[in-house]
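Give me the fold.
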Amino acid sequence: MTSYRKKAIEKATGKMLSASAVGNQIADQIFKCKGDQMVIPNSQSFLRTTRAWPGWLLTFVKDMMAPMNPDEK
């Protein structure tokens, strides 16, 4: 779905994860039979704390990150 824009996406946001890497993490979590909030990749696990952030702070962070996304074409 995004292969034709891969270079633009990786330039703006960093290396893309492979479908197998994401699928393996999801399958592992399913087979654990325990609920959990997943953040993929694990290096971004600090994002789990965003659930506790106040709404105004989340809006501020989202607004700051918006210019980093590649333009839609």
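The mean pLDDT is 80.
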